[in-house]
Design brief:
It is a single chain. By secondary structure, the protein is an all-alpha fold. The protein has 2 domains: 3-34, no CATH class; 38-81, no CATH class. It has 4 helices and no strands.
Length: 82
Amino acid sequence: MSVAVADVRQVALTLPEHDRAALAESLLESLDYLADDPAEVEAAWTGEVGTRLDDLINGRVKGVSLEEMNAQIDAALAARRR
């Protein structure tokens, strides 16, 4: 990381959370490779949703309750903090 980038990062980290989020969003939008065609993105997500739904309907995966999912997320986050 160059000195200039390190300086910008250091200043950015002092910003309030909302401002950091807005800055991060604008930086990500500035990257050319993320400028995908919205129709292609929508088609890809539609295909993924169809695949996942088919897996659920045909028993290849098992759904979990919201409570179980939240417990799994809490456990994973707790493990990362250790």
